[in-house]
Design brief:
By secondary structure, this protein is of the alpha/beta class. The protein has 22 helices and 12 strands. The chain is globular, with a radius of gyration of 23 Å. Bound molecules: zinc ion (ZN).
Length: 490
């Protein structure tokens, strides 16, 4: 039996007529980007698993926040300074009244109207973070409000958001490690260091506070139906890959500890440009550090940015092993980007392993087009799909990139020629491959066969199963929403 036919029999939980109606409607509108956007915005989505808080909130939100606070502007660089005082001419209040200044900052903080010149898109993108990061550090809950409201408006259910509530203070403890010869000695020192342990506790507490404050700002306690309240949010603590070795080690220990201690942090990640010497040279060593720590914190989930590289930016030798080492050495459970897969040594074997281990790839089409030039036929999305590697669509940094998750779905249809069935699989994947606790609703996540307990949703065994698994509860909610959405086209 063909895979598509098998999918239809197993997947849908609705009549073949309803399935035929929704797919017929999709076929009718797929070449109309506006109708497609409206359809896909309404389509229930599992959510996003690759989302940077700092780059996700739209710069407009940060600029509006900055305009109401006593910050200073460095107009030469397009930066904001949140400490100290300055003349009235340099006050951030001017952002509210000076349109030219506002536009200058909006362009400095995003790819709005960007054209390559002195800077490439990649350089402009990564430079933006340091310009607005002081605003992020003081306003994370306000920014998360923007993020969750936009996600809710697109019918998303869940987000894994990358943030470091200690503002990377953990890295500074690397200075304590310079006389220690082995990783075991370094770890032992940090585990005994009171200040380092206090930083872990601070990270955990601040992360929890951000989530609570966000729900309070959204008004979820008074009105659980308020916009944004329907989206479940969890964090990943990320490690900066361009740090010197000891700083990288200290930040990594902080990451593993925070994810081990706090239910708000469901995993760890590795970020920053991958194609610069500061990231390329230590790559193998960094995977060894993750391997060392994973053995000591085996329950911590790991998703790594890996293979966000292009042949035009690095020598061929650097394209051959990043995804492999992330999977085989760094215990990576999900790959962020994975764009250079076809340059990897023995790529076919590698994707076979990824398929067998259910290692998903977080695909960010807009980001990949801007930052590594992978678009349309040059993007490896279909290579992964042909090898049954699970795919999850995400935005990466929707605020800087001027996109949203619906737009990524539209791109997947218009540029990658995916159909409704492909998108439905991907929207389910966003929960199946999430780091939410609990067993998955799917016994076989590739063809969506439910676990034995939930062959009937009304069975007592299924109610017990759902009560015990947060992941399965959200999956069941998504199934209900999808069934309702599809039935509305009958
Ligand atoms: Zn990313």
């Amino acid at each position: 039996m063909k895979k598509a036919a098998l999918f239809l029999l197993l997947c849908c939980g609705l009549s073949m007529t309803a399935w035929a109606d929704v797919t017929r409607y999709f076929s009718a509108i797929q070449s109309d980007p506006h109708a497609l956007y409206a359809f896909l915005r309404a389509m229930p989505k599992g959510g996003e698993l690759h989302y940077h808080l700092a780059g996700g909130a739209y710069p407009e939100v940060m600029l509006n926040l900055a305009a109401t606070k006593p910050y200073c502007l460095d107009t030469a660089t397009g930066s904001v300074i949140t400490t100290g005082s300055c003349s009235a001419a340099m006050s951030s209040h001017n952002l509210a009244v000076n349109t030219d200044l506002y536009q200058q900052y909006l362009k400095a903080w995003s790819l709005k109207d960007f054209h390559s010149g002195k800077e490439t898109a990649e350089e402009h993108f990564f430079a933006a973070f340091s310009k607005f990061m002081p605003v992020v550090a003081e306003n994370e809950a306000q920014m998360l409000v923007d993020v969750l409201q936009r996600a809710d408006a697109q019918n998303e259910q869940y987000m894994e958001i990358l943030t470091i509530p200690d503002d990377a203070k953990s890295a500074s403890f690397g200075a304590l490690l310079k006389d220690k010869a082995t990783d075991a000695e370094k770890l032992a020192l940090l585990q005994k260091n009171e200040d380092f342990q206090a930083n872990i506790k601070l990270t955990v507490a601040k992360g929890h506070e951000i989530l609570q404050q966000t729900r309070s700002l959204l008004g979820c306690d008074k009105n659980p139906m308020a916009k944004g309240c329907g989206v479940e949010a969890r964090f990943q603590y990320y490690i900066l890959r361009q740090l010197p070795d000891d700083e990288f080690f200290a930040m990594s220990v902080n990451a593993f500890e925070v994810a081990a201690q706090s239910p708000d942090f469901v995993g760890i990640n590795l970020v920053q440009e991958e194609d610069v010497p500061a990231a390329l040279k230590p790559y193998k060593r960094q995977m060894q550090v993750l391997n060392f720590l994973q053995q000591r914190y085996p329950k911590v989930h790991i998703s790594l940015h890996a293979g966000e590289l292009s042949a035009s930016n690095v020598p061929p030798e650097d394209l051959r092993f990043h995804i492999h080492d992330a999977v085989m050495v760094g215990h990576d459970e999900r790959i962020g980007h994975g764009v250079d897969i076809l340059h990897e040594d023995k790529a076919d074997e590698l994707v076979k392993t990824m398929t067998q281990r259910n290692i998903a790839v977080e695909v960010n089409l807009t980001s990949n087009a801007w930052l590594v030039g992978a678009k349309s036929a040059t993007h490896p999305l279909h290579y992964y799909l042909e090898h049954q590697v699970p795919i999850v669509l995400s935005t990466d940094d929707e605020g800087i990139l001027r996109t949203d998750l619906t737009h990524e779905y539209v791109k997947a249809v218009r540029e990658q020629h995916l159909n409704y069935q492909d998108l439905k699989i991907m929207t389910r994947n966003a929960l199946t491959y999430s780091f939410l606790p609990g067993r998955s609703l799917w016994r076989d996540p590739k063809i969506f066969v439910r676990v034995d307990e939930c062959q009937s949703y009304s069975a007592l065994s299924c109610q017990k199963f759902l009560a015990a698994s947060e992941k399965a509860r959200l999956q069941k909610q998504l199934e209900d929403k999808l069934a309702q959405f599809e039935a509305s086209y009958s």
